[in-house]
Specification:
156 residues; mainly beta; 8 strands; 5% helix; globular
Length: 156
């Protein structure tokens, strides 16, 4: 198991703290100079590998635009807010994002919805950036299994 630093889940909403706002003049200049724009539409199904207090450590598989093993540290900050650190390991590198989301427990399933920013990347994703990505999902309260969806634009 790869050990990931706690995202400070609120910074996560998969709070991927992006180095710039996609669509800003600076980001567009970077895209104009060789960075490729990627329209993300990814989902993941994860299972609990451990928990510490109000933090769920999850592992699973992501599919969509960028596929690979995915890890999430999801921290319940309050009865209505979560933060997350999301790391995905596709072939050729890795991406980590930080997210912050509203949290709504309701019966057997809790849902969350917020935004994520790309914090860092390695390998072929070492120059990745993106902010304001859509971050949402559910937590199955009986076994803490998580589904997650990330959508938006990033540059790499």
């Amino acid at each position: 198991m790869r050990k990931l630093a706690l995202l400070s889940v609120a910074t996560a909403t998969v709070a991927l703290a992006g180095p710039g706002v996609f669509g800003s003049a600076a980001a567009n200049a970077a895209v104009a100079h060789g960075a490729r724009s990627i329209a993300l539409s990814d989902s993941g199904r994860l299972h609990l590998i451990s928990h510490h207090g109000f933090t769920l450590n999850e592992q699973g598989t992501a599919s969509g635009t960028i596929s690979g093993t995915i890890y999430i540290h999801l921290h319940v900050v309050s009865t209505n807010h979560v933060t997350a650190e999301v790391s995905i390991y596709p072939k050729g590198g890795s991406l980590t994002g930080l997210a912050s989301a509203s949290y709504s427990p309701s019966g057997a399933v809790a849902s969350f919805s917020g935004t994520m920013n790309i914090a860092r990347g390695t390998g072929s994703y070492s120059h990745a950036s993106g902010s304001g990505l859509s971050f949402s999902g559910t937590i199955q309260r009986s076994n803490d299994a998580v589904t997650v969806r990330v959508a938006g634009h990033m540059s790499a």
